Amino acid sequence: MAIIIYARKSVEKENSISCETQLMYCRSMIRPDEKDEKVIEIVDNGFSGGNTDRDGFQKLMHLIRRGRVSKVIVYRVDRLSRSLIDFVNCLNEFKEHNVKFVSSQETFDTSTPYGEMVVKLLMVFAEFERTSIIERVTQAYEHRSEMGFYMGGRRPYGFELVPAMINNIKSKKLSPVVGEAEQIQYIYEVYAQENVTLRRLQSILIAEGRQTLDGSEWTTSKLSALLKNPIYVRADSNVYDYFDAHGVNIISDVSAFTGEYGAQLYGRSKHSQTIADWSDMKLVVMSHSGIVGSELWLRCQRKLEQNKQIGNSCSNSTSWLAGKLICAKCGHKMTTVKSVINKSNEIRRYFSCTGKQHKKNCKGPKVTIYAEDIENMVYECIAAKFSELKSEIRTSKNHSDEINGLKLRIKAVEKSEAGLLDNILSGGFNADLVALANQKATALKRERLELYEKIEELKNDAPDIKYVTDLSRSWQNADFKRRKQVASIMIDRIIIGEDGSAKIIWNI
Fold it and tell me: What pTM value is reported for the model?
């Protein structure tokens, strides 16, 4: 049988008493009649007492369960555990194996019922102290997050941590790293394209040799997390509306969404079977400059939320119109198929309805839609479009900042209107004050409508024509890749009728 002296130094308090000092106090508790017994010293240096997942503690319990221990001595009871449940379980095992427990500082042992009772009482207070510390740390975390401090630990890709003063407190903030920020912009731009899935984006990045921060290759999960992170967006009124519509608790005032700074989302979303509940999530506008414009970021969010894998019809490389043709009968996309059509083994491409191939719910057009024929027709239509427009390349007056400012003013007016309504409904005003409140509400409504009118005026502001060029010449020499790019920009979809007729829905 042996006497175990156990010491633990917590990682939570760097200035706590050392393990060697604890052992010295514990040795003094060995009685004269125990001098000849074997003494084993076990140390857990740098471990929290919040759980029992400690090498030294597990070794101690292993020796007890094998019946090799007669007594356990610690400096204080919280060195063994700070959890009341864990400690009571230890006491039960000690009692089961006839092991006495002694604390050098509390001057009692479990050889008496009184000592056992006092130990339990002390552990109640130890547990209370532990939960209080956790609560204070949690509150401090939330408070610092709401003040705009970056609380994410390791820096996110695209940024570096630099010293900064935030609310007169020395801290660190994120600052874009030029090369990495360019790659972030590139990732968003590529994914925003119609035919690019997460897996396709991953393949593109790997093929181009672009790596993550730690040098490993990109995965779809890493890319998804990066694309969803609002820390990259230049948060403006549209971003405010997006998170507000999702039920996020927006901590920062609406006036902070100027379209310049990134944002931080923290908390934990709750998921049901098909939807995510963001009501416990919080959003704060940070002090660092964003990387990605809100329009591009929101476009990626909408695409991620659809959570659909784009089929082969979109990534098909056999036609530059892939993904554009829609069957008028069933609404499904049409994909190209190769087929031998005569005795000379001539292979021709034709479009077939995916509703006919996979869904089995559509017979498709009654005539064969040969890819070459539809491509030639669309090619001529695009050329005519270019000639008609003369490809007037315009540079619009940039009113985005002014429009965003007007939207923020509208948000502020709407908040004021909501506050007035709440006060009136709660009976907080007498008759005279209600009359004044109604006047104020009318003025706010008028102001809100005027702001909307100003936004529409700015949107309709005619652009200044800087130069005109005839792009039809370039279109005549366009290769497969360029034709696909132009078709993607100019054409929304091509509806194929049952009789083989084609109707082009233009984007411009």
Answer: 0.45
DSSP string, 264-317: EEES--EE-SS-EE-TT-EEEEEEEEPSB-HHHHHHHHHHHHH-----HHHH-S
For residue 136, CA distances in Å to 29, 141, 402 come to: 36, 9, 42
For residue 275, the model assigns a pLDDT of 44
- What does the DSSP 8-state code read for residue 232? G
CA–CA distance, 388 with 472 (Å, rounded to integer): 10
Count Cβ atoms below 10 Å from residue 501 Cβ, excluding itself: 11
The second-level CATH assignment, the architecture, of 159-306 is Alpha-Beta Complex (3.90)
Residue 241: both structure tokens together: 């509306």
Q: Is the pLDDT of residue 296 over 70?
A: yes
* Equal CATH topology for 2-138 and 159-306: no
Q: Rg (Cα) of the chain, in Å, rounded?
A: 35
Please, what's the b/e burial string for 254-275 (b: 16 or more CB within 10 A of its CB; e: otherwise)?
bebbebebbbbbbeeeeeeeee
DSSP structural state of residue 14: T
Q: Which of 184, 192, 177 is nearest to 222 (CA)?
A: 184
CATH number of the structural domain 2-138? 3.40.50.1390
pLDDT digits (tens, 9 = 90+) for 10-51: 765 656 788 999 999 999 889 888 888 999 999 998 888 877
